[in-house]
């Protein structure tokens, strides 16, 4: 009976080891076949394809028959149209059509009239596609007489120009995702870019004039680089050349706090209603939605046009930080009003426009760069931390955590290794038992 039980135990152990080998092999195969996960700490949305559909329809139908596009809460594309023929074309393309009174041409004409009026610091306006209006806002610094003059201009344009007062103050915001410091103040690294020869940090233009020297710590022991180009006001972007011409490790990752990061896979154009994320050193990773495009803000330093308007909160210390969605780089933080306790409005300088003006492109993992407006499936386009920011997959995650992460090969390899050890162990145990049994029998025969 004892020998029978031993045989049963050995057989069960061998079957368990063989089963473990098959399970581990299946886990490894699935991990290899699946999409390799990049460092990511932010949720991903599915709005980019819907945005592309809406943009293509607007471009095909023209500004006289459409009035913008956006993404609804379910992620479907919606296009504002001015006639039934355009609405039919939108529906045939699989998008939702919303008939409105005023075309994109009218909305842009109204914005041009506002830009031609005397400039009033503390005011801003943007095209609200969903409401089919131009919304004009004035912060608490705008005097009663200035606001009265601006509302008079708005009323003369038409009823589709809406005015409202807002809390807080429209200001530029210093600092950001990974801090860089100079005598002008503390600002933020946005995205790493290259001109094919040297590497740069693309950040906000109001951070400092050309010639500003930037450091990675308050003691000034680690020099990052020098501002070599930029535009502010008018636009809000600048280029900081690395002191050693190289961005270093982590150039394709945006830091989001707590040693984590998000790998960027391309550049993109935002859509109204799209879910977006912003990273900053003061308020960390924050999410929200794009509320309007082609926004104009009259900062105390001057007017900036063509901005992305969002309801993502920001605070002093978040300027220049990266705006991204679905792994696509969208812009850098310009300014806004409010804070993350009460909420507010934050504006961003679009990234493709800035890169085209500066003659640079995002740094891509594994190759030099990608053109603005493109994506690189399977590759990783540069994000924006200062070199040395720890991110998962780049030295910031312990080996054990990576081995036990079910998204990686580690679990499958551990199961395979354990099964092999068990199989070898059972075989050795059986061999040793057989050897002892033979010795006992041999000794009995000669005794």
UniProtKB/TrEMBL annotation:
This protein's UniProt keywords: Disulfide bond, Hydrolase, Membrane, Protease, Serine protease, Signal, Transmembrane, Transmembrane helix, Zymogen
Q: Which residues cross the membrane?
A: 408-426
Which protein family is named in the record? Belongs to the peptidase S1 family.
For whether the record's keyword set contains Protease, the answer is yes
Where does the Peptidase S1 domain start and stop, copy by copy? 198-352
User: CDD domains attached here?
Assistant: alphaLP-like
Q: What is the protein name stated in its UniProt record?
A: S1 family peptidase
* Domain Peptidase S1A alpha-lytic prodomain, chain residue ranges per copy: 102-155
Instruction: State the species of origin.
Output: Streptomyces ardesiacus
Q: Which InterPro entries match?
A: Pept_S1_alpha_lytic, Pept_S1A_streptogrisin, Peptidase_S1_PA, Peptidase_S1_PA_chymotrypsin, Trypsin_dom, TRYPSIN_HIS, TRYPSIN_SER
Instruction: Tell me the first and last residues of the signal peptide.
Output: 1-33
Q: Which Pfam families match?
A: Pro_Al_protease, Trypsin
Does the entry feature the keyword ATP-binding, yes or no?
A: no
